[in-house]
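Per reviewer request, we include the raw input and output of the structure prediction for the construct analysed in the revised manuscript.
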Amino acid sequence: MKILVTGGAGYVGSHTCKLLKNKNYELLVFDNLASGSKKFVKWSKFKKGDVRNFREIDAAIKSFRPKAIIHFASCISVRESEVMPVKYFENNFIGTVNLLEAMKKNKIKHLIFSSTAALYGFSKNKKISETQTLKPINPYGFSKLYAEQSIEQYAKSYNLNYIILRYFNAAGADQECEIGEDHSPETHIIPIIIDALIKNKTLKVYGSNYNTIDGTGVRDYIHVDDLASAHYFALRKILRSSSSTIINLGAEKGYSVKQIIHLSEKIFNKKIKIKYYPKRKGDVAKLISSSKKAKKILGWSPKKSDLKNILVTAYNWYLKNNR
């Protein structure tokens, strides 16, 4: 079965492609390589293109004729979105509308969309469910919200079948170290901690007075292989059912920045130098997922998202990638 994967040269996309190839799907990665890497396209055909260009995504769909599309292609940095909002609205919102229009034109009915917990904004709940009010507080979150709303409207108008997956914090790396996290610049805390640990750098921590267990931000970290498996389960579901849904993906456990630092020091037996800075605009204190719906609807639960496993796989990938 043919599956087109936009953004398949990126972090989560490449891990998902590896799993789907092992499940005997035929894949085409459509990616502009702005943040992804051609070296991560190891399990599929490749077509360079940009979702902001309707003609390019339309031509890719028309020639490949996929049964379903998994849409990863997006910009993901909260910090960058604050200073370059137009980039996020063009890529994440307009790019998604272009994809939807191309799907309509080519009669492709099945879509899995990579979304984010940033839609929830400030949360007073210990665990966030899919029914919580959506109140994004940064352009990144708004761009994904508009994309979700576009998908829902196209589904009503053109009989599109979708599953929207709202990630919490993707982390870790492929167990075999074939692929891993390789953003430039890197904005995710775990690879930044590992970089500081290995290179003896001073780690910058933004925010030490949040209303959390130790004053630093708390997040729900999910191993990238668990995210990949969720896409596989979602793909099986969407091809067997005509219903559409929105599902959170997280490990249902929160760790603060300080807790991650302390565990890293313990595992790798090395101290990390820290310097604290004011909290950044657009960052929330705490985000922890409820994944009850994922378990109920998809039959999915995280298997590799123990924080120690996340840190060890990320560390091993970092060593291999920086030799």
